[in-house]
Amino acid sequence: MAQIVSNPADLAAGDAKSAGVDLAPFQIDRIRSVDDPLFAIGYAALWAEFGAKDEMELRETLDQRFRLAPRILSEMILLRRAGEFVAVRDHTAIVAGGGVVVHLSHNLIAPNARRTGLAGWLRAWPIQTARECLATNGAADDAPVTLIAEMEYEMADDAAREIRLRAYERGGFRKIDPAVVRYFQPDFRAFEEIDATGGARPLAFQLVVRRVGREGEETISGREVRGLVRALYAIFAPPFRAADLAHPLLALDRLPPDDAVIALLLPTQC
Questions:
Q1: Is it the case that residue 156 has pLDDT exceeding 70?
Q2: What is the CATH number of domain 8-265?
Q3: Is the pLDDT confidence value at 163 over 90?
């Protein structure tokens, strides 16, 4: 497994501040197995932040996802300084639609490390995972790279969400118009909990994308949107029961047709 290379060319124009960050004090580790001793550190931090909101996969789910390599390449990136937790992000790359799609699952930075420029690198490092996924699957190394993240809908009393959306906007991401594309994430809860509460409950999210090298484009086709959502569901699918994935809110035919032209908005745009 290659070491992280911090290539400023992978940063978005709005993340220029990150290029000046001194990364030397940080230990940066890539984690691709639940058996890695560092997995417990990263997972505990993510679960504490996202588990109660039903937005974090179970350990068993991530174990299955790690095992899909090299067809689907999943990893955590853990940052520590002097042995102390600084940040963690997890993401998964899959070759799809003539390019590679990278799902940016979760990103968490310790409070004392926020607004330092580290977030820009945490958004850029997954591009290396994308290139590795292309290479290991025999795809062209210049194939299109798309980073995609699921973001909560804005709430007037949630300043943290507004900060995250502004950060993605600075990082070259655009929001697929949620008035046209109503996207839902599968229900990540344990099967027993799903059954005890009357069935799967997909969660509504907005989709934000960085199409690397095409950040200035202001529209996306229905065909590309369907391909992106299909790629996300292919990443999520292995641990799910067929009945849960068959939920009507997850049906691809709910999405705009291939020839639709959909606006790409600024992430903070309502």
A1: no
A2: 3.40.630.30
A3: no
